[in-house]
Design brief:
Helices cover 57% and strands 9% of the residues. The chain is mostly helical and 134 residues long. The protein folds into two domains: 100 residues, no CATH class; 30 residues, no CATH class. Strands 1-2-3 form a three-stranded parallel beta sheet. Strands 4-5 form a two-stranded parallel sheet.
Length: 134
């Protein structure tokens, strides 16, 4: 298995450097088992939103395209897929991924009131609570 860094995914999605984009595509097509660590999963959303100014719909389509690559596996892929669903419904991607990773816990504790409100409205488990709520 070969682990990938964010820049490989970004080149593939944005084609902003045609040479590197072709190299990234060739790597995907070579048939190697490829792996995206969870820490790398957080960065493409930030890069696509911040540096490339893509809107949420384009970012979701980009992740869906990456998730559809047969030989590309994301660490905790089910959590990534859940995070994308919550991201589409208004969560920040990183918050959605943090919450998906808290499955099985009693609560996710945060000072982020927006996250707490969205999680409550969406009836997500575990609940998001402030430290004083515990």
């Amino acid at each position: 298995m070969i682990a990938l860094d964010t820049n490989i995914l970004a080149r593939l999605v944005t084609n902003d450097d045609p040479v590197q984009a072709r190299q990234s595509a060739a790597l995907m097509d070579a048939g190697h088992a490829l792996f995206v660590p969870l820490t790398v999963t957080l960065e493409p959303e930030w890069v696509l939103r911040g540096a490339y100014r893509l809107d949420k719909a384009a970012i979701v389509r980009s992740f869906e395209a990456l998730l559809s690559i047969r030989n590309l596996a994301f660490e905790r892929q089910a959590d990534v897929e859940q995070a994308l669903q919550n991201y589409q419904s208004g969560f920040d991607f990183s918050d959605a991924l943090h919450h998906a990773g808290a499955t099985g816990c009693q609560a996710l504790v945060s000072f982020d009131q927006k996250l707490k409100k969205l999680a409550s409205k969406s009836k997500l488990a575990p609940p998001v609570m402030a430290p004083g709520d515990i």
